[in-house]
Amino acid sequence: MDYNVIVVGGGVGGLATAIRSAELGKKVAIIEKSEIGGECINRACIPSKTLIDSAKIVNKIMKSSWIASTAKIDYAEMNKFKNQIINGIKDNLLQVLKKYNVDIIRGKGEIKNEGEVIVSGKTYTTDNIVIATGSEPLSLPDFPLNGKNVVDPWTAMNMPNLPDNIIIVGGGVAGVELATLFRALNKNITIIELMPRLLPVPGIDIEIANEVKKRLEEKGVKIYVNTKSKIVKTDDKVVFTAQTPSSTEEISGDLAVITIGRKPVTDGIDLKNIKVETDQRGYIKVDNRARTSNPKIYAVGDVAGVPLSATKAWRQGIVAGDNIGGKTSEMPKYIPSSIFADLEIGVVGSTLEELKKANINAREIKVNMKDIPRAWTVNEIEGFLKVIIGEDGKILGANMVGEGATEVINTIALAMELSLKVQDLYKVQFSHPTISEIIIEAVQRAIVGEIY
């Protein structure tokens, strides 16, 4: 055998698998046809957060009346900074791969038979294969991508120049983040969402969605919900027909960004011949150890199905690497999600409404950001935390919108994964003044009563 493990795909899931397998003593190669780091590091998570954080800095200055200054974004310079960040992170990862003697094979990996991967006509043999080929935008009949004025989110975000009028199809995570960024660049933004609310995502509380909608509208974003739309013209302007609950409208813009629709990337892989099962949408079926129906083949990241997130991909890669290396490991029960809008959002577990539908008794504790001293000192008193507590005192879910929500939610996920009860957390003290004290305030209210 040439290798113990060959990972096909150098995105975050593939990287995590390769590094962990190598750390556990395996001879590993990773095959990548484009850039190490995949979508997340090169085009999605990292660049989008870099750009959004830049916008947040400007917003923070502009709303701080005691700071005698003005600020605006230099889009060209911001993109240079974004590229520096991407290269810095990739360089770090390449150093780790080098440290553990992971071979990088450039090209498209094809799998026709078990134990063999073909790259540019050369066949490499291996004991284990890990499929980490990700997903890609799906061009839908009503929203056909043309690479010019109808594009996917990551193409839009990496354009050297943006037009003034942008229409975003889909009010999910990507749609909300892009609307936040583009509006901060003084673009005219319209969101069109088919469902009756923004962020129609399992685990996200309706009050969170309403708060995000309110904030975006206050900043001038026009939002259509419960609206069925399709593109009817792309010659000069992009023109949509939009059927709202009360009327049919024509909406036009310079650029349409389609944030809905993705499909797994499995071209060049003979899934049937290597006995790897998929679901109805073509995503590879895996168990909680990232194993496919073929015990010698693993799959991680987007290609292994929902949730299509880098958070899941990183962990699934580690789990696959552990098990390949002989260390028993399973996916966590709770995977937090973060949304980097104008106000950060963090969610984990279930909402109270979801639990009610499942006939599970629970109660909700809500703490407003304005109750937390640190929120005042950083001039970020909007938002709230909701914690859902079961009859036995275990935390079943949490939703937060506000400053630091994407960090706070990780602490709650830790408590949930370890099956801690609010009675256990009542013994814990967080440092003061911090945003994360909002967790302890929720615990205080669950056990006895409010302190702040």
TrEMBL record:
This enzyme's EC code(s): 1.8.1.4
Gene3D superfamilies the UniProt entry points to: 3.30.390.30, FAD/NAD(P)-binding domain
Recorded catalytic activity of this chain's protein: N(6)-[(R)-dihydrolipoyl]-L-lysyl-[protein] + NAD(+) = N(6)-[(R)-lipoyl]-L-lysyl-[protein] + NADH + H(+)
Domain Pyridine nucleotide-disulphide oxidoreductase dimerisation: 335-442
Gene Ontology MF, one: flavin adenine dinucleotide binding
Record Pfam families: Pyr_redox_2, Pyr_redox_dim
Record InterPro entries: Class-I_Pyr_Nuc-Dis_Oxidored, FAD/NAD-bd_sf, FAD/NAD-binding_dom, FAD/NAD-linked_Rdtase_dimer_sf, Lipoamide_DH, Pyr_nuc-diS_OxRdtase, Pyr_nucl-diS_OxRdtase_dimer
Keyword Repeat annotated: no
Known cofactor(s): FAD
Cofactor binding annotation: Binds 1 FAD per subunit.
Keywords of the record: FAD, Flavoprotein, NAD, Oxidoreductase, Redox-active center
SUPFAM superfamilies, A to Z: FAD/NAD(P)-binding domain (SSF51905), FAD/NAD-linked reductases, dimerisation (C-terminal) domain (SSF55424)
A Gene Ontology biological process term: 2-oxoglutarate metabolic process
GO annotations of cellular component type: cytoplasm
Domain FAD/NAD(P)-binding: 3-317
Recorded superkingdom: Archaea
Keyword presence, Repressor: no
Family: Belongs to the class-I pyridine nucleotide-disulfide oxidoreductase family.
Miscellaneous notes: The active site is a redox-active disulfide bond.
Matches recorded under PANTHER family: DIHYDROLIPOYL DEHYDROGENASE, MITOCHONDRIAL (PTHR22912:SF151), DISULFIDE OXIDOREDUCTASE (PTHR22912)
The protein's name: Dihydrolipoyl dehydrogenase
